[in-house]
Write a structure and sequence with these properties.
Blueprint (H helix, E strand, L loop, with lengths): L28 H7 L32 H14 L3 H13 L3 H15 L3 H4 L2 H8 L5 H7 L4 H7 L2 H10 L24 E2 L6 E5 L10 E5 L18 E2 L5 E2 L1 E5 L12 H16 L3 E8 L5 E6 L3 E6 L4 E5 L4 E5 L6 E7 L2 E6 L4 E5 L4 E6 L6 E8 L2 E6 L4 E5 L4 E6 L6 E7 L2 E6 L3 E6 L4 E7 L5 E6 L3 E6 L4 E5 L5 E5 L6 E7 L2 E6 L4 E5 L4 E6 L6 E6 L3 E6 L4 E5 L5 E4 L6 E7 L3 E8 L2 E8 L10
Parallel strand pairs: 1-6
Antiparallel strand pairs: 2-3, 4-5, 6-7, 7-38, 8-9, 9-10, 10-11, 12-13, 13-14, 14-15, 16-17, 17-18, 18-19, 20-21, 21-22, 22-23, 24-25, 25-26, 26-27, 28-29, 29-30, 30-31, 32-33, 33-34, 34-35, 36-37, 37-38
Helix pairs in contact: 9-10
């Protein structure tokens, strides 16, 4: 039977060839191939649909596996998108009703992020800035700037910080003064350097000094906190213009404040914010001066250029605004009781009955004005060439300080003129005769007499419209400058009201009863009563943010004018505080300790390293 019979065409189906088994043999491959011919290659198996088709091997890739569950989800999502809104809500309600707590928690966690939208990404800049305009907290704005770059860009817009500055009354730059390029230890005479309080040192003046043969020993009591570093010690002495020796023990540390001007509202806010923070808990004593002789401080004036101090020992000390002594003015006999600086000019008066005009640049006396017959008790200036003096001779005099002539003599008081205030062409004087009088400076005539107090008037304030007078009768009266009528009588103090300051509709009064009161002049009511000091309030000053008071108990206190809360005591230990004066970045304190007069300048200015924006 031939081999072709295996593939007979008469067969109804094609049978698969059966391979011929090859017996195992120990023969070599060569002999094996020679003995047995190679079998033919088997043909592919036919498919189930006929001889022309073959089986396709199934793929093992999961991507090609058709999942009925996934197909159902796709059909459901497609059908859900075609439903109406009410049908969608009904379907979702049915699904959620069928969910257990675990499934509902999953839905909440999944849906919540999808419902959140970043408003600053979808809203225009104008609306974003409008939203930020209602934020009054700088810390909140700082945190908002850390959310994203978009938020940081919106928060950094100067419109936001402009509105914040306006709401907090941050209206003008602070660092508009000249920063002195003085290096530590470089001082102009006359000085004796002393280390920070707590250190003791003895200073021996050179024996070959022509004017000095004394020994000065300094051993000051430690203050509570004195953030001053020690400065090299030396001894110098100078002679005044009258040939008298003038000496002062001094420690001067030039302010390390930045001289950067705020170039935007954002930098302006940062500057003011750092200053306010230093007022709350900070400050550096940048200058300390101690007179070598006794003297009561009678006057203190702080200007942009100078700090001027008058004492009852006939001396006037002139410092730079940073606290560096530049001149000691001598010429008055006995005490100096009134001074008034105007730019580089100073007018002074005292027990010698003279009014003197000084050049603060050179320290020279320009002229002496004679006319009063008793102590000159108060002085004011209405412009750069007009000065008004009040005396214990019960008169006021109007001077032209350029020509040295007396323009008017204002008579009418029956006792000593104790205080003066000037606004424009109007002068108001308070007297021990229990009255206050309103004068025209240019015409030299009396306009009104304000009568109502039962005892001497010691203080007054005048803003051009309202006049406030404080008296020994413990009351404060508010008057109209135009009509001379009394608006109100403010009562509450129990002793002499000797300190007054008025700013807008706010009046702050200090009394010998140790209290300070804040009054609202719109309603003529007392807003805050501050138990300020154990004894008399000897000096006070306030601005839009704070009140600073000093008393005969030797303390200097800072108060919040809006809330009346006590903020802090400045770290000063004195026997009595004579005068204080402050501006935004510093406070000057004149006080007594160990029968000597001390002056300290405390700076709240931001440091250079704080300006790394």
């Amino acid at each position: 039977m031939h081999g072709s019979g295996l593939l007979s065409s008469s067969s109804s189906t094609a049978s698969r060839p059966v391979p011929v088994p090859v017996p195992l043999s120990n023969h070599s491959p060569a002999s094996h191939s020679a003995a047995f011919p190679e079998p033919p290659t088997p043909a592919p198996s036919p498919g189930p649909f006929g001889s022309g088709f073959f089986y396709a091997q199934p793929s093992q890739s999961p991507a090609l596996v058709e999942d009925p569950y996934s197909t159902s989800l796709a059909h459901l999502a497609r059908d859900f998108s075609t439903l109406a809104r009410s049908q969608r809500e009904a379907l979702l309600s049915a699904l959620l009703d069928a969910c257990d707590t675990s499934a509902l928690s999953f839905v909440l966690a999944y849906v919540s992020p999808l419902l959140k939208k970043d408003p600053f990404k979808v809203l225009p800049n104008e609306i974003c800035l409008r939203i930020l305009s209602h934020v009054d907290d700088a810390r909140t704005l700082a945190r908002a700037a850390q959310v994203s770059r978009r938020w940081a860009s919106v928060v950094s817009d100067d419109i936001t910080w402009k509105g914040l500055c306006e709401r907090l009354h941050y209206k003008k730059p602070l660092l508009d003064r000249e920063i002195l390029p003085t290096a530590p230890g470089h001082l102009s005479p006359p000085f004796v350097h002393t280390p920070a309080y707590g250190d003791a040192a003895a200073f021996s003046l050179p024996q070959n000094s022509p004017n000095v043969t004394t020994m000065i020993s300094v051993s000051s009591p430690p203050s509570s906190t004195t953030p001053l570093t020690a400065i090299p010690i030396s001894v110098t002495s100078t002679t005044t213009h009258n040939g008298e020796l003038s000496m002062m023990e001094s420690t001067y540390l030039p302010v390390v404040a930045s001289n950067i001007r705020p170039w935007s509202y954002r930098t302006l806010f940062k500057q003011r914010y750092m200053v306010d923070s230093a007022w709350l808990n900070g400050g550096v004593v940048t200058a300390r001066h101690v007179t070598t002789d006794q003297g009561v401080v009678t006057c203190l004036h702080l200007t942009k250029k100078y700090v001027v101090v008058a004492l009852d020992n006939s001396r006037i000390h002139v410092f730079t605004s940073e606290g560096r002594l530049i001149h000691t003015l001598t010429g008055h006999v006995m005490g100096v009781w009134a001074i008034m600086p105007w730019d580089d000019t100073l007018v002074s008066g005292g027990c010698d009955r003279d009014v003197r005009v000084w050049d603060l640049k050179t320290g020279r006396c320009k002229m002496v004005l004679h006319g009063h017959t008793s102590t000159v008790r108060c002085l004011k200036m209405s412009d750069s060439r007009t000065a008004i003096s009040g005396s214990r001779d019960a008169s006021l005099r109007v001077w032209d300080i350029e020509t040295g002539t007396c323009k008017h003599v204002l008579l009418g008081h029956q006792a000593s003129v104790r205080c003066l205030e000037v606004f424009g062409d109007i002068c108001v004087s308070g007297s021990y005769d229990t009255t206050a009088k309103v004068w025209s400076i240019s015409r030299g005539v009396l306009l009104h007499t304000l009568a109502g107090h039962f005892s001497q008037i010691y203080a007054l304030a005048f803003d051009g419209v309202k006049i406030a007078t404080g008296s020994l009768d413990t009351s404060v009266r508010i008057w109209s400058a135009e009509s001379g009528q009394c608006f109100a009588v403010l009562q509450g103090h129990t002793s002499l009201v000797g300190q007054l300051q008025m700013l807008g509709d706010t009046l702050v009064t200090g009394s010998s009863d140790g209290s300070t009161r804040v009054w609202d002049l719109k309603g003529m009511t007392c807003v805050h009563r501050l138990a300020a000091h154990d004894n008399s309030v000897t000096t006070l000053q306030f601005d839009e943010h704070r009140i600073v008071t000093g008393g005969s108990d030797g303390r200097v206190k800072v108060w919040d004018i809006k809330t009346g809360h006590h903020i802090r005591d400045l770290p000063c230990t004195y026997e009595a505080v004579w005068r204080i004066a402050f501006e935004d970045e510093k406070v000057v304190v004149l006080a007594s300790r160990h029968n000597r007069t001390h002056m300290e300048v405390i700076s709240f200015a931001p440091q250079v390293q704080d300006w790394e924006l």
